[in-house]
Amino acid sequence: MTETGVVSYANIDGEWNDRPISLFGAVKSFYNQLTTGMDVTRISMPCAFFKPYSLLEEIAAKNMAHINLLLSISNENDPLLRILGLGQWLLTSTKQQQFSHKPFNPVIGEIHRSKVIHGDPTDKENMTYMICEQVEHHPPTCSVRIDNPAAKLQIEGYHTFGAQLGRNSVSVVNKGQAYIRFDDEEYYLPRVMPNLYINNLFIGGRYLTWDGEVIMICKKTGFQAIYKIEYSSGKNICNGKIYDTADPVTDEDVPFALMRGECGGKGTWRLNPEHPKNKSKTKRQLREQDLFEMEEENVIPTYPRSQEENSSINTWEEVRKAIIANDMPTADREKVKIEEKQRKYFAGLKQSGEEFESAYFDLDKDAHYWSIKNENWWREYQD
Length: 383
Description:
- The chain is built from seven helices and 17 strands.
- By secondary structure, the chain is of the alpha+beta class.
- The strands form three sheets. Strands 3, 4, 5, 6, 7, 8, 9, 10, 11, 12, 13, 14 and 15 form a 13-stranded antiparallel β-sheet that branches. Strands 1-2 form a two-stranded parallel ribbon.
């Protein structure tokens, strides 16, 4: 329970996470409609497959879980350690976990607000604020903004994905881009997440694996990082290469530093002795060193007492209650109501010729990038 009394079940490890999913009944009828290669994002799935919270809630919970690590990085003077630490924080969301159920697909215009208080609860600048909004339906796209005014930290970006069904798996291709800013130092991420694979979807023990690259570029410092994530021996492992160049990285470029570690866990880094700038370094200077220390306990954000009608917590309230009670027929009926409401909304837009307008973000149609409308949006955050 947070101090406002509002709960997101994305922060709770309940028994619903381990409930078996049967291929009989509703799930069997759903399974019979599937074909290999189908776009899973366009399928209305039964609630037996779902956790009792929205994808927006999960994004907030994962991004805020180790927010203190990010604030530690903002105080780091060494630009190499900053880009290493940013990669470490970003990859906390890809740590190894068992997969049994998925979060709800957010509806268009759905929003989720959260914040973390650091110290004095009356100091509104020494807090980390986050807003997520579902800004597109297909492909499903959510925009995110994080602000900590005291640390002069801003994170802004969007995430979209496509999901295809295999015979006993789902492959999720993640796309999107983001900017992380510490005062006047900006890091551009042309890709924010590796691809995700859900294995043994119907038969066998389900588990997640991540595969792909996350790229981070800082023009001010000249550092570029490529973090490659792959599944090995039951863990998601990251191998990072940091290049000291203001130009695009090529196969001929030699990394300035190297990083290796478990996503969401411990990691190490070292200067690459093969880089020209490191040739004269001593053995001590070239030694392997630990990355930033992370707190074992996840930070749990607070949520506003007053929830908008289109907030994740209000939108999915009845479905959530039914899933927690293991009343799947009721959960399915309530979920259909939400989907029908969304279909009517889109039909109304089509009939009127209007377009969806986001509450918090503006779309640059040429760049296809969603940016926050009001830079000081966090000042209006009310509990």
